[in-house]
Write a structure and sequence with these properties.
Blueprint lengths: L2 H13 L1 H8 L5 H23 L5 H27 L4 H8 L2 H13 L5 H18 L10 H20 L5 H22 L9 H28 L2 H7 L3 H13 L5 H17 L49
Helix pairs in contact: 1-10, 1-12, 2-10, 3-9, 3-10, 4-8, 4-9, 5-7, 5-8, 6-8, 6-11, 7-13, 11-13, 12-13
């Protein structure tokens, strides 16, 4: 498996989540949709994980549950809550696109990472590409704290993974994370909108999409990218997700893709190239007290047109800003 294939697979899968969201949020309440997505995904993973016979310690379980709460619950919960509170997807996408900045700053502060002027230019250019793709920031209000919670949740997850450098199998790690998140999402759904849904063809199709390519594929590709590419390169690839999400919307939903999305994709590619071959790439062996090897980071983007009106998952998807 080459680094290029890992990078391409990650961008494509992480960006596809909004398609299932566009289908599902018209047929079910977002809380119920999110709960069922995680229950089904957890069921699939729990049926496969035992065959791996992977050794998992209590420490591994604790770490992966924590990562599940931050990378899944805080991230997706914040995004869905933001959408329900009226925060537009463009604003959410822009807030979440600050992830590379936070991870780079934390890497410099705690691990001694260094980015060159060229690489910082790439970070800024990537942020501009996201702004161009989603159309800027909408009206800000108190609910802006919700996408900030999403941003902090994913950033915290990235930094914890970097410090812990877990060695558990990717499937095992994803199984524990998703199972822990499922418990939380089901509890929230039961206490709010409930779990009852109308199993229409649209809902079934959206759940299938959210579970397989967006959930298993998106988050699985994310973990592989962190382990094979490192934190900083994975972060920068996320700048490509808004325009790629727009292409998914055009291909699967018939949404119009405009010049801003095409230009944003070009800028995103330039940003990724500028930040390529960074010194440590977030995989430095320098350790803070008690720390370990590193790798990690995330925050998908958003699509255009109709994509800005629904909520979505992933590992991408989410209220059409992030795409997992």
């Amino acid at each position: 498996m080459t680094k290029t294939s890992v990078a391409v697979g990650f961008v494509l899968l992480w960006s596809c989540g909004f398609v299932g969201a566009a289908w599902g949020t018209t047929a079910a309440d977002p809380a119920g949709l999110l709960a069922w997505r995680y229950v089904i995904t957890a069921g699939v993973l729990l049926s496969v994980a035992p065959f791996l016979r992977a050794r998992v310690t209590r420490r591994d379980l604790g770490q992966q549950c924590t990562l599940g709460l931050t990378a899944h619950v805080l991230f997706l919960g914040g995004v869905f809550a933001a959408a329900a509170s009226g925060v537009d997807a463009g604003t959410t996408a822009l807030v979440c696109s600050a992830q590379p900045l936070l991870v780079a700053a934390a890497g410099a502060a705690f691990w001694g990472d260094r980015l060159t002027a060229r690489q910082w230019t790439g970070v800024a250019l990537g942020l501009g590409a996201v702004a161009l793709c989603v159309g800027g920031v909408g009206d800000l209000g108190p609910a802006i704290i919700l996408p900030v919670i999403s941003l902090l949740g994913l950033s915290c997850s990235a930094l914890l993974e970097r410090r812990w450098a877990p060695r558990v199998h990717v499937v095992t790690a994803l199984t524990v994370q998703v199972s822990a998140a499922a418990v939380v999402f089901v509890t929230v759904a039961v206490l709010t909108s409930g779990l009852a849904v109308d199993p229409t063809a649209r809902l079934v199709g959206s759940l299938a999409w959210l579970v397989i390519p967006a959930g298993l594929g998106g988050y699985g590709a994310y973990l592989l990218a962190l382990r094979h590419l490192g934190a900083t390169p994975t972060s920068m690839l996320l700048y490509l997700t808004p325009p790629v999400s727009a292409i998914w919307a055009w291909a699967m939903l018939g949404d119009r893709i405009g010049a801003p999305q095409l230009v944003a994709m070009g800028l995103g590619i330039v940003a990724v190239l500028l930040t390529a071959n960074s010194g440590q790439n977030g995989r430095t062996t320098a350790r803070p007290p008690g720390g370990e090897l590193a790798r990690c980071t995330v925050t998908p983007g958003s699509a255009a047109g109709r994509v800005h009106s629904a909520s979505a998952p992933l590992g991408g998807g989410t209220p059409r800003a992030p795409g997992v």
